[in-house]
Amino acid sequence: MTSILMLDGDGIGPEIVAATRTVMAAADRRFALGLHIESAEIGFSALKGSGTSIPGTVIDAALAADGVVLGPVSHNDYPPVAEGGLNPSGVLRKRLDLFANIRPAKTPPGASGATGKPVDLVTVRENTEGFYADRNMAEGSGELLPDADMALALRKVTRRASRRIAEAAFALALTREARHVTAVHKANVLRVSDGLFLEEVRAVAALHPGVTYDEVLVDAMAAHLVRDAGRHDVICTTNMYGDILSDLAAELAGGLGLAASLNAGETHAMAQAQHGSAPDIAGTGRANPASLVGSVAMLFDWLAGRKDTPAFSEAAQAIRDGLDAALASPDTCTPDQGGRADTAAMGAAIAHQIAG
Ligand code: ATP
Ligand code: MG
Prior knowledge:
By secondary structure, this protein is α/β, with parallel strands linked by helices. The strands form two sheets. Strands 2-1-3-12-11-4-5-10-8-9 form a ten-stranded mixed sheet, sandwiched between helices. Strands 6-7 form a two-stranded antiparallel sheet. Helix 1 packs across helix 10 and helix 10 runs antiparallel to helix 11. Helix 1 (13-31) links the parallel strand 1 (2-7) and strand 2. The protein has twelve helices and twelve strands. The chain binds adenosine-5'-triphosphate and magnesium ion. Adenosine-5'-triphosphate binds next to loops. This is Isocitrate/isopropylmalate dehydrogenase family protein. Keywords: Oxidoreductase. InterPro entries: IsoCit/isopropylmalate_DH_CS (IPR019818), IsoPropMal-DH-like_dom (IPR024084). Belongs to the isocitrate and isopropylmalate dehydrogenases family.
């Protein structure tokens, strides 16, 4: 038995989570995965019911589950923290110690991506520190400083977190054809903090003679990606650079609707689309479920390794094949990919492919 906790979230969350569930059920039937799926409320619906966007019972359930599937959340619109408006994504990343955010950007077969050149890269983003370490501690004005017209932000970089994100990046590179890691930084200006990050990545690079390695400044990387994203393989970087570059890479590869991600730690993992809750299209059936479906394929691969259950990697591959098949026809994909299917129909089409 493998237990999965599913959390709808806000905006398009309930729609893409429902479609993803259909896909998971098909994979469960075909590969006898023994999934035990439970749902719990977070976000606005939890705020209404229990006064907090992430109840303690949900955190406990996430800690107890083998894997978590998190729908997008509109945390920017929540009430203040004192009134229960916590960012569920941030809380779960912290409580489950999900230190690596793995964000692939891959152009589907036959598609050409935003610049006419296919992209197949993965951003490995440090997920626990940087400018986003602890927003209350790391950013302030007024109450922290005598000058209410000045704000300061602190950026935290530790050896341990840099080391383990580098290890995750090189382990991933070993599974890929190009076997290349690029560390992205701004150590020409942030000499101490990005310097420390680079020291750790270099130390890990030295232990991996089978993986080629280079370093690129974050500003140059933005230009490189637009010019020729197809040249890049694994990008290893700190929290904020990874946040920004992975959105750029996702859009170049084919759009945010395709952008999957996995938050991974030693003992827990959480599937989560790269995009937000897209309130502009919520409730219209236009949301592309591929982002979350692809994230679940990543979770299944992670579970295959963790529980030594090859059926999960077979299921992950079947999900990816089903996704590619659905994206290949306008009848089975959503409008962001030039199709005419709605969210549920696209989920059903992927499930149908998996069922064979
Ligand atoms: P949030 O405040 O929660 O981040 P947002 O308005 O920034 O929400 P995002 O979800 O980050 O919206 O995405 C930006 C835009 O990309 C959306 O407005 C939406 O049009 C599009 N988009 C995002 N996700 C999807 C998806 N799964 N399918 C189709 N379009 C999407
Ligand atoms: Mg957003």
